[in-house]
Amino acid sequence: MKKSLFRLMDMLELSIAYILCFLLNVLLDFVKTLDLDAYILKAFLKNFIDYQPLIVSLFTFVVIVFHYQMLERKKTEIFCRILAGGTVPDITARYMLDCIAVLIFVYLLSVLVNLRFGFNLAGNFYLVLIFVTYILISARQVRKYENF
After folding, report:
1. Is it the case that residue 42 has pLDDT exceeding 60?
2. How far apart are CA 16 and CA 55, in angstroms?
3. How many CB atoms lie within 10 A of CB 125?
4. CA contacts within 13 A on the Cβ side of 52
5. What is the mean pLDDT of residues 112-122?
6. pTM of the model
7. 84 Cβ partners below 8 Å, 6+ apart?
8. Residue among 2, 24, 4 nearest 102 (CA)
């Protein structure tokens, strides 16, 4: 953690953002399993169930924007680390490893919850693929801060 680009609070913020995204997916899967007698409540929740992929995708986009802003706040620190002798490939690798470690931890928590309730794991796996793709794309952004 000493050479990490993120502080403990940054890691916690990123974890909470990922947890909220995975939790929304699990919550919408849980709503699918409810057997409700009230017609009005069932009709209200049906709209959320019908648009679950869109809702989760939009919230995933919000988390990606948060992740981008978090990296944007670090551009001065990245530049200072380069000036102090850190190499861009090392900084980029640590950034990717930190982000993927947080993502894997949160994904494993969501897998445990999904297995406990017997939900489908495919939705969360798609979220992981989206986030890993973004992490790989944003790692190129770390290289842009070399000439800040």
Report:
1. yes
2. 18
3. 13
4. 18
5. 89
6. 0.85
7. none
8. 4
